[in-house]
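pasting for ref
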Amino acid sequence: PCLPRLPWQTDPEHNLWYFREDPSLSSFRNYWRAIFKNSSRDRRGEFFFYMHRQMVTRYNVEHLTHNIAPVVPFSPEFWRQPIPLGYDAKLKAEIGYDYQARPDNTTLVDLEGEDPLTISTLEDWFKEIQNAVKNMAIVTADGATIDLKAVEGRDEGVSVLGDVVESFGSVNRELYGSLHNNLHMIIAWVLGPSQDDPTKLGVMGTTAKSIRDPMFFRMHQFIDDIFSEYKASLPAYEEDELSFPGVEVLESTVITDGKKNEMHTFTEEDWEVELYGVEVDGKPRFMAEYTRMDNKPYNFEILVKSSAEVKAMVRIFLTTSGTVDPEADLVVEMDRFLVNLTEGENKISRSSTESSVAERRQEVLLEFDTEVSENDPYPPEEDLFDGCGWPRHLMVPRGKPEGSTFSLVVMLSQLLPEDAALATAQEEVCQV
């Protein structure tokens, strides 16, 4: 689809406004961060890694559909250089002030006030994390060592590393600091380093709106690169760790409007959504209209042969080449679900409306201008209205007007006796 280009959109990055500034995407990330404040969630750090990897991957795919190079990571060599692209959210914060716009070519500065933070401190934290990845071991606060390793194909280190990098539930915050969280804040306070004037806070300082800023994706590409370096240090999977004896995928297709192996996106004008918390003309609650990307409903049709009755996890991905690493593909997860295979051929049909990685309730948008209290580690999930998942209307990459080529990848994995998936409905767990 062809999207309107506004007069102020002078940088190629502005072409992706339909993605970054979609209210449902802000809503999803705010919801995800709220429910994952619960430190008791199993493998929480791994979810942090994977959810944000999917965000960055999807954004890079959108880059490619606009013929824009992948996101340049905001790595330490850029921390003392001007940030070329500024950002103005044109939104009010929950306290009633406009978020501080960041002009082009703004340079980070050390933060002062009650919570001082220097760029040198961030650099030191990053070096310690690099050392941990290099040594494949994390040192805990009491001096013990946690090995970063995979055991029988299961990555036992990524969740610990995720908690350290974020940091949330870090085993040694004194040594490794809070790289992810404080990078957000040093960018957010770039024009208010004293941190005592709320009108100087930029959107990178809020979970509800930070994804609107292009810097969010540069910063998270840098964070994701840490995990990529760690993953590359793990041994390759063994054949028996990935194989599924007796099970074979014979055929897989996606069907849209009766057409095989086609998916269609389109621009939806005047989409209405009810917002609360942004005051317009003295009204705190109002209906807003915006132009958004959407896609036609589609079905995945999969033919699987099994030698016996067995449970399996089905995972469906779209992939496209064109990353910085020519050997790697951008992999977008489209669905994940359990099936009970019978002996013989099994025909599996899965509608796009059933996807477990997509939001379950499209009608009501989370009131994303009302921040979840930072003091409540166990927010009531039923009070967050949109359900957890990627926005359904953004599930399919935009593509080019003439069409874009993707590969459909379907894999079935056997379940081990201790797998949580055997006892848990994955629809109840936000794992995007």
